[in-house]
Amino acid sequence: xxxxxxxxxxxxxxxxxxxxxxxxxxxxxxxxxxxxxxxxxxxxxxxxxxxxxxxxxxxxxxxxxxxxxxxxxxxxxxxxxxxxxxxxxxxxxxxxxxxxxxxxxxxxxxxxxxxxxxxxxxxxxxxxxxxxxxxxxxxxxxxxxxxxxxxxxxxxxxxxxxxxxxxxxxxxxxxxxxxxxxxxxxxxxxxxxxxxxxxxxxxxxxxxxxxxxxxxxxxxxxxxxxxxxxxxxxxxxxxxxxxxxxxxxxxxxxxxxxxxxxxxxxxxxxxxxxxxxxxxxxxxxxxxxxxxxxxxxxxxxxxxxxxxxxxxxxxxxxxxxxxxxxxxxxxxxxxxxxxxxxxxxxxxxxxxxxxxxxxxxxxxxxxxxxxxxxxxxxxxxxxxxxxxxxxxxxxxxxxxxxxxxxxxxxxxxxx
Length: 415
Description:
Blueprint: H1 3-22, H2 27-33, H3 36-43, H4 47-63, H5 67-75, H6 77-94, H7 99-127, H8 132-160, H9 165-170, H10 173-196, H11 215-242, H12 247-272, H13 279-298, H14 304-329, H15 336-351, H16 353-363, H17 368-389, H18 404-410
Helix pairs in contact: 1-7, 1-8, 1-10, 2-8, 4-7, 4-15, 5-6, 5-7, 6-7, 6-10, 7-8, 7-14, 7-15, 8-12, 8-14, 11-12, 11-14, 11-15, 11-16, 11-17, 12-14, 13-14, 13-17
């Protein structure tokens, strides 16, 4: 097969793989969250064991991040994605075997999901760079679909399978194993296409990724939006119940937070990629987040659904923009994994403080309106980081013809 023939099929293969990864990286978590009482009974977990099971994935999002560039260098990003999907599928097959297997498997699940999330921007940058905004949006929107499917279908599947928690956990491994098989088959072809694309490799003169332009502003934006998101997903039902709603309404509003934002996750990075600067789009999204938090804190409780929808749009758009900024602002395709590891690793570590801090202050007697108002400060920081992160990069002159990397940095308005 010629290099040209390989290249023609690579974008389609990469697009399917990106969608497959997006559909694989949240259902393994939300399908467990929706069945925690049933898992507690089936596996005889204590309250501490159940809390540990719930905390492991988010903890691994930050802890595993430094391994992503190692995987990318060792295997290449395409083969690394295939290896991680295989590990994810195998871990999900092992999880139902017992309490110890469930904990150990969840560690592997959390680490695999973390690394897949970090490597996906490099897949987009390498194979889908001419439509990087669109594909960043596709990835983040199917990411939301994965979360919603896991939460919505876990209990119906549990009931349909006769109330067997082990089988209900096992069934979620099957689609991910299919994605892993596809990735294993596609990886060699994608690797050849990436080699033929002429993407520059990292050079010694590039210096530390920690000194790359925009790395800390993108990290700050990622961390702020993730902190607000995790704080809301942890405490939104409690907040609305505290304001007079029943528990069922609290659960529905949490689902509404995810569903309302799915279109925004697709559209925001697609729109932002059309401009040399993404600062205006990040500012609008941050202001929407602030409006949603303010309304949830101070508007009448009867309007909660409206402001939860605003927050859903703002948070999903912000996550899509954060992924898009990683793709666009990394110094080169070859260094996207390292850039992504910093932004997501540090960002998720910051985000983990959100649920913890709100829980501690709430226990100490601080009201939810005050705590939501405090999150307005995080939204303000998100706005500042987003404006700084969205500024255009200065294209580096190349001694030969412009590369795919330089074209991406210049965007559609290059002169």
